């Protein structure tokens, strides 16, 4: 939900920027991509939710990414960096990865709206559905995730057939989703090495985080009882505001959902 919140906030607030003037179709595609991208960085953890999304396929990809991330961590860490494996919260948890994911997505979509975008939609829809349904979907039921992802992809492709989605907007959406993930990790106990490879206090993998009193435990009571519901409410509100701005919700024209 943090990815959806970030995408909705960026598009709702940037009213005078092209990213805030998207067609409803482009906005919806971006919403799916951003929601899924908010789980993408955790592909570096073989036991994460995202690594179980598509069964052996995503599990294999997760193992590969974990190995690469671990190698990069070991070869670029300094003496002040912690002596850990570095596979999780490593390379995929940096702004460099978010930028690469955004640029890569834009390039792929520009190559082909017919096959590239549907493939990306299917993958990111799967990540989004898996994340949202995590507490209800059995870990072994990759078939259900695949079916729901396929349905979302078909619906989006059919809706955007006459109004192609913006390739640049797709890239921005993926980048925004990744950054939302980093910000969420940054307020947990472990922090997040967002600024790698910039050395901070002698560390190239400096864990960016607020003071300890402002951090929360991953999966703890604060996250589940306060942060989670708040993020969900804000996501729905700002999504409605962004769609209203795009002209997709005419019945809300009499309401000022974003009075700024």
Automatic annotation (TrEMBL):
Q: Which InterPro entries match?
A: YdjM-like
**What superkingdom does the record give?**
Bacteria
Q: What is this protein called?
A: Membrane-bound metal-dependent hydrolase YbcI (DUF457 family)
Q: Which Pfam family name is an example for this entry?
A: YdjM
Give the transmembrane ranges. 115-133, 142-160, 222-243
Tell me which UniProt keywords the record has, alphabetically.
Answer: Hydrolase, Membrane, Transmembrane, Transmembrane helix
Any one GO MF term held by the record is: hydrolase activity
Q: Which organism is it from?
A: Saccharothrix ecbatanensis
């Amino acid at each position: 939900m943090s990815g959806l919140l970030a995408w909705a906030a960026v598009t709702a607030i940037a009213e005078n920027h092209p990213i805030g003037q998207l067609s409803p179709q482009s906005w919806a595609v971006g919403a799916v991509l951003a929601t899924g991208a908010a789980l993408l960085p955790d592909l570096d953890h073989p036991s994460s939710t995202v690594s179980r999304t598509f069964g052996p396929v995503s599990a294999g990809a997760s193992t590969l990414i974990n190995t690469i991330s671990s190698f990069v961590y070991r070869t670029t860490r300094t003496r002040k960096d912690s002596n850990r494996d570095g596979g999780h919260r490593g390379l995929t948890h940096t702004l460099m990865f978010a930028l690469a994911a955004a640029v890569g997505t834009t390039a792929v979509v520009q190559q082909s709206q017919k096959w590239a975008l549907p493939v990306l939609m299917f993958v990111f829809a799967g990540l989004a559905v898996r994340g949202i349904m995590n507490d209800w979907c059995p870990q072994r039921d990759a078939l259900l995730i695949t079916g729901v992802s396929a349905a979302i992809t078909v619906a989006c492709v059919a809706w955007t057939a006459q109004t192609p989605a913006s390739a640049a907007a797709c890239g921005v959406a993926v980048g925004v989703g990744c950054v939302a993930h980093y910000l969420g990790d940054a307020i947990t106990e472990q922090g997040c090495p967002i600024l790698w490879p910039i050395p901070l206090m002698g560390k190239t993998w400096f864990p960016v985080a607020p003071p300890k009193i402002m951090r929360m435990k991953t999966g703890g009571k604060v996250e589940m009882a306060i942060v989670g519901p708040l993020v969900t409410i804000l996501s729905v509100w700002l999504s409605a505001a962004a769609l209203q701005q795009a002209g997709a919700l005419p019945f809300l024209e009499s309401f000022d959902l974003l009075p700024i």
